[in-house]
């Protein structure tokens, strides 16, 4: 799919969230993290941007989720988003809500826009109230740190990380109505990553002209095929949020499904989301490699999705991949417990190009070649059910000693 | 619940699967395991025993499952069960089926009973055909190893283990119609343990007089509250099987729901299953402790079960318990993604007696006391939703470096 998608747009290798026209970004250290890394960041837009949000499905939704829903719900417009890391402001009661609304109000005031034009996002430890004195100080200093350049984007990217090891960004451009349109994104992941908006924050900027409703439609479609198809550990956080802002400054005719460039824009947006989602999976806590599961031949795409997610989420499969063990038995066991229609006689399994199971029967394969393949930094597991036309792809990572180390003492 | 249950029966501390009258057991090393531990075992009954089986829900069911269903399906009677470890005989095609049927036939012949009175169980690596020459040799030697004593039971218990570290057994007795009735069990677990009959083999013997249909009813009820409430890693194997045999030699009046001792027998059976299930959870691959999750105040027992299983299955919760980190935020996040009705304002969470969350608000607690509690070998997580009368208990274990080590190279 990815190859077909890229035909519609170009990848901007050195692009960032400040590449689309109208956006500035930045970050600083205000003291919420114990390290000296940035822990407060913002993206702002020089005009009211059409906005869209996708949120965690967890029953317990952190205070910032409430605030962002409120802001985007108002007019579908945003002038900016403020983000802190180091503290999730989740399960923090009325004080937490007050703090999140205060973050919105203070930042809106600092950049001179209406409060309802600001989104708020937080990530980090659950159940502790924000040190608001530090947040207030940080917000006061933040506007001076915002810039429309690569450094501003880099500072923002650092400010949203928790246990992430690398920054996650993507940028593409395409032509609409003779104008160059950019779509860019930045994201953080790391643990508690699972379908339906797991612990991740994602931010998409674009200079395309598109309404809030249309942007929401496309963002949800893209999310279902990308962010909702990754898992690190099956846990879904209270704070997940993906926010998109469209400045409209590219000058294209406003995008609707009737616009000839609709599909190309949708493909570009999906590509940006897919790059970010795969980067989150590859950088899952303790991960040493990206694992991709491609399921085809299922009775439907939904069924293929369920199977792909079950395989990618299996601790036994993940451990085997970490150990470079071609243990296809665990793969088929995961396929078989996904609760989906499967013909137990017709399943093929390949690891990369190495066929290990054909029509549900093990066939001899070169163990050395399999070991070599599984030692690589990307492992693709192909499952063909020969049971229909449904297909899906999911991404995850291996389960390692470091996952346990990181999560055995996250708070300390 | 457990305290109430034990009122109806006595625990037989030194009891085993050969304690109920009529049963012999044994085991030997035939060469399926690379170590010298036993890998072939059997339980036999001197009379045709009423039989019941509960099986894996995995779409891919190993050949022995097919054979055992066939045997119990015939007349609801068993004279014995033969079990091998070291090879699961799963995903082994027609040859695997033929091998499983041959195991049944050969063992039936060796002890002089009809083939359909023998159940077969296998556990170990998936996708490799059994070394049937070794199995045949082992079966020929096995009858001489069977005994009605503790040693016979111990040999059997060893023969069913894979990566298990300890043998898992339980035995109770109760009085029915003036006769002493025993119920005993043995089980193996270790990885791939999840609700709905995960990688486990369980064997229950009793000298109670009870029909196959009634035994099946009680075995399923007990399984739903015990074996189906444990998880090690969320994976469900192709081979899980719980088989019960009732010799009837205790001489009680045949048990039916109308018998005054029905509830007591059911309680005893459930207790045996609960002891085995908890032992499997505690001995989960790499586990250092047993984790028990008690959910109450849910809208229904089913809802409580779903929530308890989600919490017990959370890799983040499991890692935190391993690290003795009182990270209740991960517990509430797991509660919130269980897909069940939860009032986000009314949740209490306790770790043992240490209250960490009240009405969904964190309350200050003694971190040192929590650390001390979490360092113990049993951790009980209490979740009260204050949202109804539903309650459930689930068991699991912590996620450790050793889980990863064991599963990164299981086949090698």
Automatic annotation (TrEMBL), chains A, B:
UniProt pathway: Amino-acid biosynthesis; L-arginine biosynthesis; N(2)-acetyl-L-ornithine from L-glutamate: step 1/4; Amino-acid biosynthesis; L-arginine biosynthesis; L-ornithine and N-acetyl-L-glutamate from L-glutamate and N(2)-acetyl-L-ornithine (cyclic): step 1/1
Reaction(s) catalysed by this chain's protein: N(2)-acetyl-L-ornithine + L-glutamate = N-acetyl-L-glutamate + L-ornithine; L-glutamate + acetyl-CoA = N-acetyl-L-glutamate + CoA + H(+)
Record-marked site positions (Cleavage): 198-199
One of the protein's GO biological processes: L-arginine biosynthetic process
Any Pfam family the entry gives: ArgJ
List of residues binding substrate: 162, 188, 199, 285, 407, 412
Gene Ontology CC entries for this record: cytoplasm
Keyword Nucleotide-binding: no
Principal EC category: transferase
Lineage top rank: taxon: Bacteria
EC annotation from Swiss-Prot or TrEMBL: 2.3.1.35, 2.3.1.1
Keyword Cytoplasm: yes
Cited InterPro entries: Arg_biosynth_ArgJ (IPR002813), ArgJ-like_dom_sf (IPR016117), ArgJ_beta_C (IPR042195)
Keyword annotations from UniProtKB, A to Z: Acyltransferase, Amino-acid biosynthesis, Arginine biosynthesis, Autocatalytic cleavage, Cytoplasm, Multifunctional enzyme, Transferase
A GO term, aspect molecular function: L-glutamate N-acetyltransferase activity
Active-site residues (renumbered): 199
Family that this chain belongs to: Belongs to the ArgJ family.
Complexes and interactors: Heterotetramer of two alpha and two beta chains.
Xref: PANTHER family: ARGININE BIOSYNTHESIS BIFUNCTIONAL PROTEIN ARGJ, ARGININE BIOSYNTHESIS BIFUNCTIONAL PROTEIN ARGJ, MITOCHONDRIAL
Its biological purpose: Catalyzes two activities which are involved in the cyclic version of arginine biosynthesis: the synthesis of N-acetylglutamate from glutamate and acetyl-CoA as the acetyl donor, and of ornithine by transacetylation between N(2)-acetylornithine and glutamate.
Protein name per its UniProtKB record: Arginine biosynthesis bifunctional protein ArgJ
Organism: Paenibacillus cellulosilyticus
Organism placement in taxonomy: Bacteria, Bacillati, Bacillota, Bacilli, Bacillales
């Amino acid at each position: 799919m990815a190859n077909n998608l890229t035909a519609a747009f170009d990848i901007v290798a050195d692009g960032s969230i400040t590449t689309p026209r109208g956006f500035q970004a930045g970050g600083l250290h205000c003291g919420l993290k114990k390290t000296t890394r940035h822990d407060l960041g913002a993206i702002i837009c020089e005009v009211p941007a059409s906005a869209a949000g996708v949120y965690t499905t967890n029953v317990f939704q952190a205070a910032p989720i409430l605030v962002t829903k409120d802001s985007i719900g108002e007019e579908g417009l945003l002038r900016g988003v403020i983000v802190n890391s180091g503290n999730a402001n989740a399960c923090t009661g009325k004080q937490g809500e007050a703090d999140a609304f205060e973050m919105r109000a203070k930042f809106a005031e600092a950049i001179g826009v209406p409060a309802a034009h600001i989104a708020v996002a937080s990530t980090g430890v659950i159940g502790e109230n924000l040190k608001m004195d530090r947040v207030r100080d940080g917000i006061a200093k933040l506007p001076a740190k915002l810039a429309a350049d690569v450094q501003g984007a880099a500072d923002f990217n650092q400010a949203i990380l928790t246990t992430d090891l690398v920054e996650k960004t993507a940028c593409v451009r395409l032509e609409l109505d003779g104008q160059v349109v950019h779509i860019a994104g930045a994201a953080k992941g790391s643990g508690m990553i699972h379908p339906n908006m797991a612990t991740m924050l994602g931010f998409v900027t674009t200079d395309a002209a598109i309404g809030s409703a249309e942007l929401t439609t496309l963002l949800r479609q893209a999310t279902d095929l990308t962010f909702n198809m990754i898992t690190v550990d099956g846990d879904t956080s209270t704070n997940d949020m993906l926010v998109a802002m469209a400045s409209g400054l590219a000058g294209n005719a406003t995008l609707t499904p009737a616009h000839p460039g609709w599909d190309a824009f949708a493909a570009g947006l999906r590509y940006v989301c897919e790059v970010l989602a795969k980067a989150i999976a590859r950088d899952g806590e303790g991960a040493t490699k990206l694992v991709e599961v491609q399921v085809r031949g299922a009775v439907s795409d939904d069924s293929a999705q369920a199977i792909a997610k079950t395989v990618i989420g299996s601790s036994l499969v993940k451990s085997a991949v970490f150990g470079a063990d071609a243990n296809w038995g665990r793969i088929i066991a995961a396929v078989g417990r996904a609760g989906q229609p499967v013909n137990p006689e017709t399943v093929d399994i390949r690891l990369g190009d190495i066929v290990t199971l054909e029509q549900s029967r093990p066939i001899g394969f070169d163990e050395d070649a399999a070991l070599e393949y599984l030692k690589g930094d990307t492992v693709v597991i192909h499952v063909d059910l020969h049971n229909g036309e449904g297909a899906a792809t999911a991404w995850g990572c291996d389960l390692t000693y470091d996952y346990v180390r990181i999560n055995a003492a996250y708070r300390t």
